[in-house]
Amino acid sequence: MGYVPVTLSVVDMSSHLPAYDDLPTTAELCADARETERRLAFTSVARDALRPAPSIRFEDQPQGLPKQDIDMLLAAQRIAGALGLDLD
Predict the structure, then answer these.
(1) DSSP string covering the chain
(2) pTM recorded for the entire structure
(3) Which of 2, 28, 63, 65 is deepest in the core (most CB within 10 A)?
(4) Euclidean distance between CA atoms 49 and 39, whole angstroms
(5) What does the domain layout of the chain look like in residue ranges?
């Protein structure tokens, strides 16, 4: 058995649409980048990144705060809701 040519099985692709879309212009890419930056608010992220980290020292933490009350029924309902369970 020799080599079987494949050229007869290849479909002429010149009549098909290209597999890619036209690339956007530089102006369109810049406009997309500006809109993305505006939507994601990178300016606030950059500002927050430059702030110093909060202290983890014990003496810097607020003291004398009352503990939050936990309603057991409400907590059970929230957990059951998150798990998709029905407690009724």
Answers:
(1) --PPP-TTTSPP-TTSPPSSPPPPPHHHHHHHHHHHHHHHTHHHHHHHHHSPPPP--GGGS--SPPPPP--HHHHHHHHHHHHT----
(2) 0.28
(3) 28
(4) 18
(5) 25-52
